[in-house]
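Supplementary Text 2. Reproducibility record for the structural model of the 328-residue chain.

All settings were left at their defaults, and a single model was retained for analysis rather than an ensemble. We include the record here because the model underlies the residue-level annotations in Supplementary Table 4.
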Amino acid sequence: MNVRRLIPTTAVAGAVALGIVSLSACAGTSDAADKGSSGKLDVVASFYPMQYLAEQIGGGHVAVDTLTKPGVEPHDLELKPKQIGALGEADVILYLKGIQPAVDDAIAQAGVKNTVDAATLTKLEAHGNEVGHEHGHEGEEHAAEEEGHDHGSEAGTDPHIWLDPVKYAEVAKGVGAALEKADPAHAADYQKNTDALVKKLGALNTEFETGLKNTATKTFITTHSAFGYLAERYGLEQEGITGIDPESEPSPARIKELQDIAKKDKVSTVFFETLASDKTAKTLAGDTGLTTDVLDPLEGITDKSKGDDYIEVMQSNLAALKKALGAK
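Retained model, structure tokens:
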């Protein structure tokens, strides 16, 4: 189970806007007549990993809006009524069910014919307590229950598929096929762009395989347990600070457990992310004599991101992992 900051059910169901990109512009450009004059397919993407696919594959034939403004934590996203209404005028909606409950509900109401759930384009897995592998995590199930929603299109599944370049490539192929279906006139271009992106993701996968093949340790500690697919793909062990709000201090019991894990597995680094506080990581690092660094879950690109797009940030993640794991 992937544990994030605890989100009350009332917050998910509320109507508080978090400065999201307004979709009102879609209302004037997404009906059949306007689409014909603009020549653009209006695509709404739920958050950055979906936006990147739409832009890379759609190229000049699409106009992409994203529901999640840079700097907004995607899991916390809520929508205004007018934004929910504007969703219904999109030509294509691309999202990942299970990441953003408020978005899932809005998309279900929108009734757009070309609605693509990326979770259906590859196989989701239930990493569950994999964040602690053989180590016991008391209280993890309780924390998951308090969280108030599931992370995944099915109970217990891990939705962070984009952090595995191989699975992300599978999703890319599905998105390409969806754009071809929605806009047959430009199918050849979508196919060409899909092939180019899949090739780039294949090269990225090779970089990770090569870079992480020989390391001093296979274990890394992270405040956000988003890297289960990545860890599984490259033979690593993810240790999440589970059951703890990222902006609060870890429990003494968990600190002791992670101290033991760090010593046993020769861990050097506690990773934190760009869209959440680094307080937890710094607290743990200070108590265990470890260093801190960024491992970006790539849920959004901001001026704090170590790279301008998916490929660059993933390469920065690889460099951070190689350093932390003692790559040879």
